[in-house]
Amino acid sequence: AGILVLGSVFLAVTGGEALYADMGHFGIRPIRLAWFTVVLPSLLLNYFGQGALIIAEPAAAVNPFFRMVPGPEWVVYPVVVLATLATVIASQAIISGAFSLTRQAVQLGYLPRLDIRQTSSREIGQIYIPAVNWALLVACIGLVLGFRTSTNLAAAYGVAVTATMAVTTLLFYVVARRTWGWSRWTAGSLCGVFLVVDLAFLGANLIKIPDGGWFPLVVAALVFTLMVTWKRGREVLAERLEVGMLPLATFLADPGIARIARVPGTAVFMGGNPDATPTSLLHTVKHMKSLHETVVTLTVRTAEIPRVPEADRIRVEKLTHGFWRATVTYGFTDDPDVPAALALVEEPGLSFPPMQTTYILGRERVISTHAKSGMARWRERLFGLMSNNARAATAFFQIPPNRVVEMGAQIEI
């Protein structure tokens, strides 16, 4: 009985996890002000009021929130509207959190490139991802049709939130150890206290799995499968590309490079390995028999930190024969903008005039074969589907479409 009560009582604290999603979008100060001046006092009054009502009228336990409404029965309807509006407002934090997590997963290489739109010129965290928004819409409609009542949905919600809190505590331990340099004893002691509470709530909610708690576990398994498939697939793809890659130093040492025809302007060749010659550069030399006067090989990397200062955004190195090597680094909450990053370069003899700079990229089409890749055949096909439908690199890196040349290639995995 105590475990059942604990699983039900837990629903009173859900929503607290949304504070962190809102904090990433609006900053710490607005969340603190709203929490301590409005939200916390209101919640305490509401729950104390429900408790007092149940003590006075045990029969009100069926629906204490609406039974608290005084006056005639018609007054309940405006309260229903108010509760609906509160639900809509609360959902915004979850939607915003889904957008933020998706962008971070894309930046860290766990999801394919998606259409990410910045909705604010002041707050970097305010974004909109159409694909995620439509997925949430379909999921919400499916949940309503499938679960039918809020009681059934509460089981799914309880399992989802308790599991999230337990995982968050474990992630906090990792951050405290690796990033903040805490000792194992200090980090473990603090996280152990939180885990006692988290695991108690999680255990109390696990008994709800047959009643709907299975749904968030299935969704989590599907998302996890997509993420690890994409991550592993990109690794396999990089291995396939590196097999035939020519080191950039070897390419520049070829005497023929000095004799090749050069045309005015700047060409930026994007590749994943700064020490290798981009495939698009090799194809340009092979088919065009010429190069621009200034050639830049560009690699974009994502650091495992939220934001990278502009001073550390780009590093350039002068090579021979009019070649330069550039590396652009972004944090996992930064919006990639390659032209803006190149505009930060202040090296003599190197500039990127918008109408005289050409971006030459490779576009791979992934084909699943019987070659050994370390992935099951169905995962290879899933990765191929994700890769071939990913957002184009030109749009993701905000490169002007009229300044782009793409060279396609088929890669077997």
Write structural notes for this entry.
With 413 residues, the chain is an alpha/beta fold. The protein contains 15 helices and eight strands. The strands form two sheets. The chain has a six-stranded mixed sheet with strand order 5-6-4-3-7-8. Helix 12 (279-288) links the parallel strand 3 and strand 4. It is elongated.
What's the average pLDDT? 86
Secondary-structure class: alpha/beta
Radius of gyration: 27 Å
What kind of sheet is the major sheet?
A: 6 strands, mixed
- Sheet-strand content, in percent, reads 5-15%
Distinct helical segment count: 15
Can you give the helix content as a percent range? 40-55%
- Give the low-confidence spans: none
**In total, how many beta strands?**
8
In which order are the strands of the major sheet placed?
Answer: 5-6-4-3-7-8
Chart the SSEs and their pairings.
Layout: H1 2-9, H2 18-26, H3 28-56, H4 64-67, H5 76-107, E1 117-118, E2 127-128, H6 130-147, H7 150-178, H8 184-206, H9 214-243, H10 248-253, H11 256-259, E3 261-270, H12 279-288, E4 290-302, E5 314-318, E6 323-330, H13 338-342, E7 357-367, H14 377-388, H15 393-396, E8 404-412
Parallel strand pairs: 3-4, 3-7, 4-6, 7-8
Antiparallel strand pairs: 1-2, 5-6
Helix pairs in contact: 1-8, 2-3, 2-5, 7-8, 7-9, 9-14
Keywords:
single chain; two-stranded antiparallel sheet; 413 residues; alpha/beta; 8 strands
Brief account:
The chain has 413 residues and is an alpha/beta fold. It is built from 15 helices and 8 strands.
